[in-house]
Amino acid sequence: MIGTVLLAAVLVTAPASADPADPPPSQSDIREAERRAEGAADDVATIQAQIDTANADLEAAAIVAQQAAEAYNGARWRLAEARTAARQATRESRRADRALATVKADYRDAVLTTYVGGSPELDAFSAALDADGLSSLLDRGATAAIVQGEFEEKRAAYEDAAGDAEDAAQAAEDAATDAADAAADALTAKQDAESAVAAATAAAESVTAEKTRLLRRMARLEGISVALAEERQAALEQERQEQAALQAELEQQAEQEQAEEQPPAQEEPPAEEEPPADDTDDTGDTDDPVPPPPADQGGAAAAVAFARSQLGDPYVWAAAGPDAWDCSGLTMGAWAAGGKSLPHYSVAQYEQSTPISAGDLRPGDLVFWGSSSSAGSIYHVALYAGDGMIIHAPRTGRPVTLESMYYWVPPTHYARP
């Protein structure tokens, strides 16, 4: 088709003969025009391949930036957790020190009473000398044993409290070290994210410039305006994206239907015929899989409404509003409006929610992308808006958007807050 259009353009735009009586183009002229058209078509195909490569490079750079940005969010989240643990450990250490001081005072009093005021053994011996009788001696001996027993209890309490205080102090020291390590990790992650985002931004600028150059060249080859070439390229990319999204959706639906049609594993029949048993046991439990908890329609509706109100806001890595967002910052803000607290980290959002399947999705649920089936590989999250659509903050250069869940590559994880 391109060759035909180009051939027509070559023939139509050929210099007009000054004399209408001039003979029509010869066979050699036609063959030369065809050759030029075929060469131009090959050049156009090459240019299109170069544009596709540039787009792929841009997407790869954007993914690296998303991974780095979410790694930074994860490092910040772990730092906050470590600092909380360090504060708690410090409080526990102080409580242990106060308890030790109290027990230490009791133990000190016991020492003074027992060994300065007189040892139990000497008191018992004096009692034996001064005793009026055996009964009195036994009573005095029992008193000494009681005093000694109380002293031993106070000493044991002191030793226990001292051990607890030492353990608590060590735990506080370890927690402080963990917090310091987490702070160092967060700083490194921030630097990595800054580098990745800068690289992605540079890649976007480079790809934009390269596409502009290639489209201008294509326009010259096809004899059309640059604006028309750009408009056609945008339409082509949009069509490809929609086709890829539709194909991904159909494939996932087929996988889900196949999983639902899979027959359950057959169990060995019982040795003897038995009457059918009730599906429930004495506790009311059944063998059926537990369905996911129902969506909090009020909270979910508020979350979706909040996300919709942010449409058009710019993507800024590590941002969580009020006028700029990254992916997990947007879902955190949305569900905060829905009455639930989520961390500013996509992996933790998945871990703190209830995993569900694609077929169970309801508005307000979370949709995740990871580099593998492991939850630890998640690097992007979106809010499901219903009808196969999501609201998310995609990447640098793209604002908060409502688009197909399959706009990119199929999601890998789904969860309900």
Automatic annotation (TrEMBL):
SUPFAM superfamilies xrefs: Cysteine proteinases
Domain NlpC/P60, chain residue ranges per copy: 297-417
Pfam families, per database record: NLPC_P60
Regions of compositional bias (Basic and acidic residues) in chain numbering: 29-39
KW Signal (keyword) present: yes
Highest taxon of source: Bacteria
UniProt keyword annotations, A-Z: Hydrolase, Protease, Signal, Thiol protease
Keyword Electron transport found: no
PROSITE patterns documented for this protein: NLPC_P60
Cleavable signal peptide: 1-18
Chain spans, region Disordered: 16-41, 239-302
Composition-biased stretches (Acidic residues): 269-288
Family according to the record: Belongs to the peptidase C40 family.
Official protein name in the record: C40 family peptidase
